[in-house]
Amino acid sequence: MLPGQTLRQRYKIIRLLGSGAFGVTYLAEDLDLPDHSLCVVKNLKQIQYPEALQAVRRLFNREAKILQHLGNECNQIPRLFAYFEENGEFYLVQEFIDGHDLSEEIFAGNRLSEVQVTQMLQEILELLTFVHDKNIIHRDIKPQNLMRRNADGKIILIDFGVVKQISALEVNSQGQTNVSFIVGTSGYMPSEQLNGYPKLSSDVYALGMLGIYALTGIKPQELPKNSETLEVIWRDRASVSPRLANVLDKMVHYHFNQRYQTATEALQALRPSSLPPSSPSQPPLSPTPTRGELKLYQKVLINTGVGMGVLVSVGLLFMSFWRQPAPDLEQPVTDIKLVCPETSIPPLPNTLGRKIGIATVYGFPDNLPLTGEGIMIYPDQKFGGFVRYDGQLKDGKFNGCGNYTRGNGERYIGQFNNNFYQGIGKFIDKNGCKYIGEFKNNQFDGQGTWISKDGSRFSGIWHQGKLGNKIFSCNNFSDK
Questions:
Q1: Alpha helix stretches (DSSP H) within 144-279
Q2: Residue spans in the chain of domains classed CATH 3.30.200.20
Q3: 390: closest CA among 407, 417, 411?
Q4: CA–CA separation, 287 and 233 (whole Å)
Q5: Helix, strand, or coil here: 390?
Q6: Domain boundaries for CATH 2.20.110.10 within the chain
Q7: Which residues contact 310 (CB under 8 A, 6 or more apart)?
Q8: H-assigned helices in 2-52
Q9: Maximum Cα–Cα distance for the chain, whole Å?
Q10: What element of type H or E holds 114?
């Protein structure tokens, strides 16, 4: 199909998104909707054998109904808008996900922290729990089939292999169709799946290999295996706690009966027992800053090609509420030690800084996009005054350890990833309250402790800015 061509007098093709052995994917717009919303059109590879057409039609209808069911119940699976046959070819029309796949975060040579990998595995396992509860096997878990949605930072599971399943049909000399085929990707596919017998635990294996890839920076197919047991050898290539290593080892056992049998089992092993799994089909427990909201606070470095900006403060996610006792919040959790050094803000260097757009920078190398360690200062339009960042940049974004101070006195010291508070850090409210612990996408998420001005401490496992069902602001908290 060519740009401008319209299917069913409704779906106008904009451009090619990708193509492979099994089909072609296009970005399109839905002309029946007032805003001509974007969608994705998947065109199956043309069926070569007329004898297979009926089998294809049956399988296509069955699989499309499964996708429709999943997408309608879970907002982390793209919705199916239409599926139809036209001129002997088959088409799926699905929700367009504005975001990037995880191959931009997980790639050869890049190592994510244990905190980052644990959080990522938990979110994907929650999503897979929903899928496995329907007794559905995805069969192709890999970074390219997991997208991070720009609007809320959530991970979306795509490509359930409908195109691959249908296009892999074969016809024998008697005109009979063969519906036994293998779907999967080398390195992520366990032995039973390779032999044509995938199980729910096959998805667990693939996700375990993805987690090991994220920790080691080594592609799954390049990791060595024990010649006698065929188990993956990886522990000596990553710095990881015994607890997470043991969970990953069980996820990727060679024999499927020695693995966690479902995503639910793996999730229970990975998560603290005090935090029960939540359904990914439910809305977030607390507001997550959208990419649009981030842009309201970002200060783009004009004419430099550098996408630097102001992070949305974690403080924006917390409102003032009335004081009340909360004995149920106390949980026996050990305080987390900061990974990044906590230092006082030093005076500016005596040398003049360089102007880059609206920012003044000190100490960074001259090349763009900015990469290295130094100081950046720019106006804080939200609170007035200036934002100051002392820390590491990679490709023009906050990455690594940093000290971030806003015009109203709020401060964050800790780990950053792609302009987000991500990892272990310390947030200091403008009124002096503190949170020390794990962050994800600018929110308190993971093990952490809130310390009020009067010294009261509330420790536990946080999830999307909440401890239990409580949201905190300085000296106050409330049900939300």
A1: 162-167, 191-194, 200-216, 242-251, 263-270
A2: 6-95
A3: 411
A4: 41
A5: strand
A6: 291-479
A7: 297, 298, 299, 378, 380, 381, 382, 387, 406
A8: none
A9: 85
A10: helix 114-133
Using 50 as the pLDDT threshold, list the residues of the chain that sit under it: 162-181, 273-334, 479-480
CATH, range 6-95: 3.30.200.20
The full length of the chain comes to 480
User: Shortest CA distance to 336 belongs to which of 421, 450, 214, 471?
Assistant: 450
DSSP 396-464: TEEEEEEEEE-TTS-EEEEEEETTEEEEEEEEE-TTS-EEEEEEETTEEEEEEEEE-TT--EEEEEEET
Per annotation, catalytic residue among 30, 101, 140, 445: 140
- Looking at residue 86, its pLDDT comes to 83
Question: What amino acid occupies position 161?
Answer: G
Whether 140 is a known active-site residue: answer: yes
Could you tell me the CA-to-CA distances from 109 to 218, 244, 339 in Å, in that order?
A: 7, 21, 21
Nearest to 414 by CA among 439, 434, 431: 439
DSSP summary character for residue 470? E
| List of residues 6+ apart from 57 with CB closer than 8 A | 85
Residue extent(s) of CATH 1.10.510.10 domains in the chain: 99-169+185-270
Neighbours of 234 (CB within 10 A): 23
Residue carrying the six token digits 């000399």: 173
- Write out pLDDT tens, residues 116-153: 999 999 999 999 999 999 888 998 999 999 999 998 88
Residue 279: how many other CB atoms lie within 10 Å: 12
Taking the C-alpha atoms of 228, 234, 235 and 236 in order, what is their torsion angle to the nearest 10 degrees? Answer: 100
Residues 6+ apart with CB under 8 A from 227: none
Report yes or no: 217 and 103 within 8 Å, Cβ to Cβ.
no
Dist CA 404 CA 395 (whole Å): 18
Rounded Cα distance, 51 and 308, in Å: 57
In terms of C-beta density within 10 A (0-12 exposed, 13-18 middle, 19 or more buried), how is residue 427 classed?
A: buried
Looking at the domain 291-479, which fold is it? Answer: 2.20.110
At 272 the pLDDT is 60
What CATH fold (topology level) applies to the domain 99-169+185-270? Transferase(Phosphotransferase); domain 1 (1.10.510)
Residues 411 and 321 sit within 8 Å (Cβ to Cβ): no
Under a CB-based contact definition with an 8 Å cutoff, are residues 380 and 406 in contact? yes
d(CA 84, CA 440): 40
CA–CA separation, 437 vs 101, rounded Å?
A: 27
Q: How many CB atoms lie within 10 A of CB 30?
A: 18
